[in-house]
Hints:
Elements lengths: L8 E4 L5 H6 L7 E5 L9 H10 L4 E4 L13 H14 L4 E4 L2 E4 L2 E7 L5 H18 L3 E4 L14 H12 L2 E5 H11 L3 H7 L5 E7 L2 E2 L4 E2 L8 H14 L4 E4 L7 H23 L2 H12 L1
Parallel strand pairs: 1-2, 1-12, 2-3, 3-4, 4-7, 7-8, 8-9, 9-12
Antiparallel strand pairs: 5-6, 10-11
Amino acid sequence: MTTTPYLGHGIGLRTKHFEHLLEHPPHGVDWFEIISENFFDPGGRPWIVLDRVRETCPIVMHGVSLGIGNTDPLDPNHLQSLKTLKERIQPAWISDHLCWGAFGGHNSHDLLPLPYTEEAIRHIVPRIAQVQDFLGTQLLLENVSSYVTFQESEMEEWDFLREIAERADCKILLDVNNIYVSAFNHGFKVEQYLNAIPVGRVGQFHLAGHTNHGDYILDTHIGPVIEDVWDVYRKALDRFGPISALVEWDEAIPPFEEVVEEVTRSKAIEEAWRAQQEQTPLEKDQESHHAAA
Length: 293
């Protein structure tokens, strides 16, 4: 198992911010995550912006249509495009989603949850190995939000994710917001999820906003991160330590500076966590008594 580098705190590279990034340095952002498929075709304005930010910031590739859980064979053209992009930009790592989204050549253009079964694990693990061997790098797979469960499931989502990561020797992109969304929708505790994931397997965090419809939550990546999700992030830091974290804001995207405010908050939470770890037991006890008072 390789070690994923620590990059700090980043955001997604989005067209809304292209003008700003062409005119200003990306102050307040340590790294950028691109949607891999948006850069399969070379040239154009997106590449001008990407090359500009690459001068000062590391880049990570994040895919949305690998279809690692599909039953159709992996698309060789897609894999070649990923490899070509990897060789050109030399990303810090490559990630995609643990999900399915197409069947019989028809694409749903969605990140659909899988049944948590041994059969699904045996299907997916060799596909991950195929991708990793072809790309020559370890893949990070992200847990997706879910709104339904399968009667066929034989285990919990976190056990499914852990088994796949261990057997395929891949890493995990742990989406903190998705854990919160699924916990709300299905009634489990976020601690159950976090405590089941092996510490060394997590290579990246995602943070995001969502839309609460009262009796269910949709993972929409809209608006700022809510306080409850920041609390899950704090729990994730307790469990996994400092991991590269990225704020996703993909709907009703505000100006660059407003997204950076969310990055600033994620940095502040991590810095507070680090400071707490450096306290002596006596200092922690005194702080606890002070907070209780």
